Model the fold of this input.
Amino acid sequence: MDEETYKVIEQQFGGTLPVLESINEELLADPELKVDIYNNIYGTVASTGKVKILKEEEEETYYPAPELFSTMLSDDAFTGNLNFQCSLGTGSTGQDWVYSETLDKVYIKMEKVLPMRFTWEPPLSGLYLRTAMVFMLEQYRSDPVKRCHNHMAPTNPINQNMEPQKIKHVVHCVNHASSIYQEKNEHLSILTPLCTPEAGSQYVPVSFKFLCKNSCVSGLNRRPTELVFTLENHRGTVLGRRKLLVRVCSCPKRDKLKEEEAELIPSKRKLDNVVLPSGKKMLSSCDTHVYKVDLNIVGKENYISVLKNAFDIMAGQAARTGQHEFFKPYMDEILRKMP
Done:
């Protein structure tokens, strides 16, 4: 084997091959070995498009190469034949991350851990989870999601001792060291080998953290984002796809309430521009008597639910009647009481 061929093989598959002299000695001793090596390497790659790694026990493991991200750009979620599902883990105190049931969206601080749970039936082994953050709006869907210049800077303490292939990634997997950080056409994803659930458990836990914010100008640039999870087999075939809206911010609770309010209450500017048909008027009055309620609520979650329901009821009535200015002080008071 000449040196040029040796370098081509190293570039093709990465890593470092055994010392060149030892390979050439084996080839000289057995000329047919050279034919076998070329057939195994180039034949396998040409026929499958995957890299085959032979373990010492001669077991074959395939690591799917990243495709053209058609699976990530798709806007369709499906459970597939294996009923692929994902859900949020427990442990949130409302300080690091919160979930909005109204918007089906997670709000999380940078560098904080988001616990996720994944299930598929039957719990087959040998599957992979591919995770990618993508832009939610169609006009930005094909743009790669990367960290901003400031957060990618070598002087940033977060990047100290970080592996080079992870620097660009906004999303990092924190509890699976075997995860592979991949890049294809500037698009980034994480490929995580999945084991079957442990005894007594119905799910596989995978946790993530985020190393850039949605508000960063040179990165996400205030564009809404979502996580796309695909369940894949060893050939890279997509068996299921799930999605989760995510906003990385400094104050999850504030941003959650702000976006929920914007979703529930049309802006006053929009209402002012509404032209009603002749002879029809917007309902301008309702029961405006203010009732003072003093209750003792057991449990923090119950307390929050009561406040949220009161807020939603008044928000809906404000939208129906157009009396936003009247309801706003009482709604703001509820927001201030939120823990």
User: Anything to note?
Assistant: The first helix runs from residue 3 to 13.
